[in-house]
């Protein structure tokens, strides 16, 4: 088998069907771009879960001055009620569940509020004496939130118990929906890519049916005849895969590592290094998709 002849046939096919090859590159690029985005999004979700679930806390909010809940009959929580709650958190009953506890007074809550909303219309709108005090609890097992909630749900001086994990679960649910949407779009575009590759290979084989017939008459094997067509599809898909990886890298570099990272300091976001890990996967997917589609098309339609 002469390698130079095969590559000359590949170049001939690329020249004859240039517009179709460009279409294959573009549709492969779009489909693998969505696949790559879905993979990176799942990597980000996993990283954020590892980061946040180790840091989120259960907040036992004490009764504020204007409280109206049944556990706050006298309005703001008294010092005796605070001492009772603190003692309960340190009791043997909760010792296996509570890892760390710290009290957030009004001054601290007000400072954190001002820092969070600095430069917005909410800055300076809530006076310090109206802030809500709370006990911030780090659990040994974040999934044991229900025990803390049940324990303090009817405790005098406690207005509510809030698990930050539940807020994160809503965020991760939205991100998972976005991932599913990306996968769905990627599936549709991949199907389009497969059909377009098959059509391109059929067209290429049809335009060179005379050459393939002559090759068959002189004793060329099916593999020798079909390989140039298969390589055409693989080359186009490989270019689309590399292009998808490059665009993902540029997007992550400027959009995530550049713009988003500066606004989410301390959070580990996906990096160009993660894109470098994903790109070979996209390349393999593109090559396998193109190779399989081309081979099946030739087996069915190319009678040599």
From TrEMBL:
Transmembrane segments: 20-41, 174-201, 238-256, 276-298
InterPro entries, A to Z: ABC3_permease_C, FtsX, FtsX_actino, FtsX_ECD
Protein name as it appears in the record: Cell division protein FtsX
Location relative to the cell: Cell membrane
Domain named ABC3 transporter permease C-terminal: residues: 185-303
Membrane topology of the entry: Multi-pass membrane protein
Coiled coil: none
Chief subcellular location: membrane
One annotated Gene Ontology cellular component of this protein: plasma membrane
Single GO BP term: cell division
Origin superkingdom: Bacteria
Family: Belongs to the ABC-4 integral membrane protein family. FtsX subfamily.
